[in-house]
Amino acid sequence: MLHFAPYSTFSILALVICFALVCVFEFVNGFHDTANAVATVIYTNSLKPRTAVIWSGLMNFVGVLLGGISVAYGLVELLPADVLSPSNGDPAVPMLISLFGTALAWNLFTWWFGIPNSSSHCVIGALIGIAIGDALLHTRSLGNSVDWSQIWKILRALAISPLLGLIGAGGLYFVVRHLIKDPELYQPPQGDRPTRGWVRGLLILTCTGVSFSHGSNDGQKSIGLIMLTIIGILPATFALAPDSATQISQISHNATIAAPLITQYDHDGLHDEAIASVTRLTQTNPDTVVASVLRADIYEVVAGLKAVAANTEASAHDRATAKTLSNQIRPVVEYAPWWVRLLSALCLGIGTMIGYKRIVLTLGEKIGNTHLTPAQGASAELVGAGLIATAGYTGLPVSTTHIITAGIAGTMLGSGSGINRGMLVKIALAWICTLPVTITLGAALFYVLNI
Question: Is-contact 183 423, C-beta < 8 A?
Fold first, then answer.
């Protein structure tokens, strides 16, 4: 049986505070990211704002339910194993405060000025900062303490996806302009007059697609943050998946296979903790295992196996074996209860209902030199929905904000109206500054809270 430790008053208080922080962050995330899904349909009067945000929230919810959790834990794995599961069993309060404090502060700052900033960049920057802060705290080399391969993989997806949105939406708009001659598609909204007939239906359809895909990708990020919170504060209860007791014997078997792999390729002693964890896992007794300790050992072993899988000196067979073992072990610590998915969808939806106006105005009137037309909005959203959904199901986090913003910019270029340089500079500055600022803030906060 699994053993669970009693919780102190401090742990319960920390849980309440950090849970409030994660909910507020997701609420603010709705200001930024989910507003992109409803911007076009509201701006063109295709749906009333309340109807649009309720519908978008519902589609976000469905997207969260069907989107899986690969993106969620792709972000979580940016953190070192000892931060994810402290070896002494202490709650991970400094990590959570550093993460949410940093991301929330920058999100609110950019929202106040109506700049379409990326919540994904905020979270990723804060996570990288925490990993760097942990390395400095333990006087470890940054090259060996931070999983740079995972970081570069995520940053590549974040950098390439807006370019694809720009080119794809611009190209689609060019095609639509030459194939469909209905003037309704190319007229900006006139007062409160709604778009007519099939154009309105098209915009509702593209809004639905972006909302669903946003849930399948950004909703997973919310799930990852909520799981970080409940696992970090109450590791004994949430450290392992509910059905993990039946998988402990398999974990022990996999650890036996992993031991020689990690030992063989750990030439510099960088994964001594992983080797020690492998030894403990091979000796795991289902009747005496402590959930939080088992989780910490599993993450150390997963980190060691990832290093083997990425080692070019390892044979193809050994790399494939390491990847397979890692995938078999992970489900025990990478899961999400149904109520976490529900909470994620609710926080995003409520944030959208309250804070959408600033971003809607920016996307509708300030990206280009002319106001947004239905054809431009539909092209940007159709391409954006495809890119976001594809990334969500391949486990790569992308920025809904940057994809949709870049898509609208692409359609403005495609129409020949050009881009508003002032707003473009603001968006570019936010894009350039977000990672350095959040990495620095995250590292400094985590370091100070731990000394």
Answer: no
